[in-house]
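Sample pair:
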Amino acid sequence: MSELTRIPAPEGVAPAAQYSHVVLGTGRFVAVSGQLALDEKGALVGEGDPAAQARQVFENLRRCLSAAGATFDDVVKLTFFVTDTAHLPAIREARAAHIPDDRLPACSAVQVAALVRPEFLMEIEAFAVVDG
């Protein structure tokens, strides 16, 4: 695990939700492409169910990070692309299963008109920093 430093919100910048404003890291940069709610066979998980899709997306992120020798402890940035911001609580719940509040990365959430297929409710990408 690389050395990561989370910096609280600078004076005058109030956080809108649960995340770190700034995360500093030293080491190897890992970029994980946006993950969708697909299982290992490429089948959709949780059609119409944001909680099920969020759980699958975070499982896919975990697998991708692991392939790069990283864990969620190494994640410095997450970006959530959602078709409806009403899905954000489900994403936060799935995130909490992998990342404790004291290790939250920087995060951005973007509502989009659509994703690559209409049945996808969210896509999440991650950036991590690992040792050496």
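DSSP finds two helices and six strands in the chain.
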